[in-house]
Write a structure and sequence with these properties.
Blueprint: E1 20-24, H1 31-37, E2 40-44, H2 45-48, H3 59-73, H4 79-86
Antiparallel strand pairs: 1-2
Length: 91
């Protein structure tokens, strides 16, 4: 699975390389879309789902990742293509 966001296998936020989880930025019904389009990042447990500072507990942090993924996608695609794919504009 190739991420359009990360090259290194480390936590996207703190650069920790231990106890990493693969996070699908657009999850639920869009999980397969995340897989196919590289909308994934590695996160340590703390930043994934084990603290109030994790993307699953902190909506602001979750939105930050979604916006960043959209920006990366739009370097090679249009906003209309992103909206058609995900169903929403985060920017």
């Amino acid at each position: 699975m190739k991420s359009i966001i990360q090259k290194e296998k480390e936590c996207f936020f703190c650069k920790n390389t231990n106890n990493l989880h693969l996070h699908h930025i657009f999850f639920g019904p869009n999980r397969n879309i995340s897989d196919k389009n590289g909308f994934t990042v590695y996160l340590c447990a703390y930043h994934h789902n084990m603290s109030n500072e994790s993307v699953h507990m902190n909506r602001e942090l979750d939105l930050k990742l979604k916006k960043y993924a959209q920006l990366k996608y739009e370097k090679k695609h249009t906003r209309e293509e992103f909206i058609k794919l995900i169903g929403k504009n985060y920017l």
